[in-house]
Design goal:
- The longest helix is centred in the middle third of the chain and has 28 residues.
- The chain is about 65% helix and about 5% strand.
- Strand 2 and strand 3 form a beta hairpin.
- The chain has two domains: about 270 residues, no CATH class; about 60 residues, no CATH class.
- With about 475 residues, the chain is mainly alpha-helical.
Length: about 475
Amino acid sequence: MFKFHLAENGTTVRTEIIAGVTTFLSMVYILAVYPSVMGDIGIPAGGAVIAAALASFLGTFLMGWLGNYPFALAPGVGIVPFFAYSVVRSMGISWQFGMMAVFVEGIIFLLCTVVPLREKLFNAIPLPLKVAIGVGIGFFIVFIGLQGAGIVVKDESCLTTLVSFRREFRTNGLRAFLALVGLFVTVVLFHKRVKGAILLGILFTWVLGMLCQAAGIYRIDPAANMNSLYPSLNLSSVCGAFREFGSLFGECLDADKWSLKGSHLTGWKLLLSGNFLVVMFTLLFDDLFNTLGTLTGVASTANMLDRNGKMPRLKQALLADAVATTAGALMGATTTTTYVESATGVSEGGRTGLASYVTAVLFLVSILLAPVFTAIPGFATAPALIMVGFLMVGHIGQINFDDLTEAFPCLLAIIVMPFAYNIADGICFGFIAWTGVNLVCGRRDRVNVILFVFSLFFLLKYILL
């Protein structure tokens, strides 16, 4: 369990610890986002925090133990709002019934991993597409960082635009300014090869924000998402959260609490309803390709793929994901998946499961110290995400742009991810374009059976949407 082979992987205990802490700090925001969204559908916030933290601990620990990889898992930040608003609210499904869909999806994932269907799919992806997926995730991470910092904001006329530093200085403008200062410091530290540069960048930006709050420049305004940057600890709220978590555990198996608007079916018969199958397979599809995309992209960036573009111990890594999703549903957590923010720890030199162990332990500790960790604002982690995205984008040079049959599908996969705000859609478009272009151009040797079948499936998916 504890054989990480640090020397063989060119790393040290200190490096792995820094990597694990960095990954945790870059994704701990999920402990603030998850209870906020789940509270809108009736799940107690305190219990939701514990559910998310435990699911993250379990998945990340298993990733380190089974796969010996420095990747971290948590309830998918893109799946959480989909589950709450598109599934529970729009479709009129009780959250307990929705969690049952997550549970069933996890079981199917386990079976696909044992077969092993997911491993074969990963190995069937051409190496240039794997590189493109990593680059696309890099652009996606940069975009997330720019949004989290408030540098890029929504605009009705052109979807997104640059924040007005002068007009919105007390809100988005100030956050954006602090993030840019933190990014500058991170870049300088990284250039000077300071160990833990990304982690130091996060802490520097957070401390700078607290100094601005102390000076009265940063003013607390919950309506503008300007929350206090000071960490706090309330033991009574922690005790209450454990009581709420107790009421959540195993709720997805209580058929008496399942409900589906407009359906005459009740109890276990609801599992046969069309809406349930749609929800379950949608979650299955999203988790499958987000996980494969993240593993492909981050592993490619860290040079963890072998000479044939395959990922050693892939089955174990996928097994950790599947087990965490299944167990997480029982605890009241939506689909648990591998996070792209794992790239922050990898960029700090993390190469083994020891980094995952560190991240997992921090998630476990966060159950008691959640108010401390959730005080870290988005603009403090934004410099880390932007820097990591930059490092991942740098691998675009491995794509042969002189070969149109290789370059065009890769470019499509890259640009769709940030523009569609979905890793899975980028992979789908990349698959379809690679298969179509290479078959039409006479490069049939570059299209295997698995790639063709999934490309056809994706094409039908978009046609029938």
